[in-house]
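re: ur question from yesterday

yeah so i grabbed the chain u mentioned. its 381 aa long if i counted rite. heres the sequnce exactly as i have it in my notes:
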Amino acid sequence: MTRLFAVLISLSLALTAPFARANEPTPPALAARAWLLYDVGSGQVLTAQGADERIEPASLTKLMTAYVTFSALKAKTISMDQQVAVSENARKSSLDGSRMFIMPGMPVTVRELIQGMIVQSGNDACIALAELISGSEEAFVSRMNKEAQRLGMKNSQFRNAAGLTADGHYMSPRDLATLAAAIIRDFPEYFSFYSQKEFTYNKIKQPNRNRLLFIDPTVDGMKTGHTEAAGYCLVSTAKRGSRRLISVVTGTTSDSVRTAESQKLLNYGFLSWETTKLYAANAAVQTFPVWQGKADSVKAGFTNDLVLSVPQGDAAKLKVQLESRQPLKAPIAKGAQLGTLTVTLDGKPLGTYPVVALETVEQAGFFGRLWDAIRYWIKNL
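ran it thru and got these structure tokens back, copy pasting raw so excuse formatting
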């Protein structure tokens, strides 16, 4: 008869877990429409308001334009030093917004267009890159929407590559954090563009509009946005020690307010929360007995680091309980779920995580299976 096998594991090391709301530090009040603070290491949202609200993203749209551009670079369909022919459409499309001042017939490379898009927030750079990669802005936007779906961005839809106001063009704070984290994860070789403080093209020097880069040395990205309808917005990221946080602040009344509120949110995350590793990837959490297999046991754990965020000072209070269905019978495939690990803080559940087989256990031969069947029958008399 199948039964539940529970193992209590004592922890002498610090661990991480999805936070208990009852113990959550009081977040700061922000003068913004919607915001979110995301811990990249644990994948947890530490605090948020209007996380899934569909907002006009303005130039925060350029995060997705950059993601698609970086994907094209990685696929080698374009190259950094490639010369780009600037169309009249790219020049005209940015006359009423931020631009890097590219002109038809003037030499410009992909590298320069990326800096124009990220540092100078140039709408013209976005159109030029879109036309280079997909042939037209319309085709490029279709690719932007496909990437959003693939990344699980459920409240995002794009109508253009630069973030101009348009019906049906929207993102949410949660989706913005998802996208920012994807850029950091998938394209670390290009992430340094987001910390660049100024860029000069066509003899015109423009500073990065992310003022946190000039105020907080731990901030190394990412993107500002502003339209009359969207207000002043900022997706920022900072790394202090081994921790990286992403802050999304939207709908503030000025550049200085979005800067101050973003700094406030980042400081709250670093000072009021801690992130710690519970288990390393591919390290055995427990070894379970296996019946009718060529091996008599199987190592169980996680294929990725189990990292969790908790309020400062609470890591030592965490407890875990591992449960597995017994008996486990071969064959067992590597990666098959064998049980669940429940993490609690002060008796309150923080999260439950699947524990998987870290190795394959093949089925034993006929006599091995017969012998185990007899042993199991005797064991349960």
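noticed a couple things. Confidence is low (pLDDT under 50) at residues 1-5, 7-20. also The CA atoms of residues 11 and 319 lie 7 Å apart.
anyway ttyl
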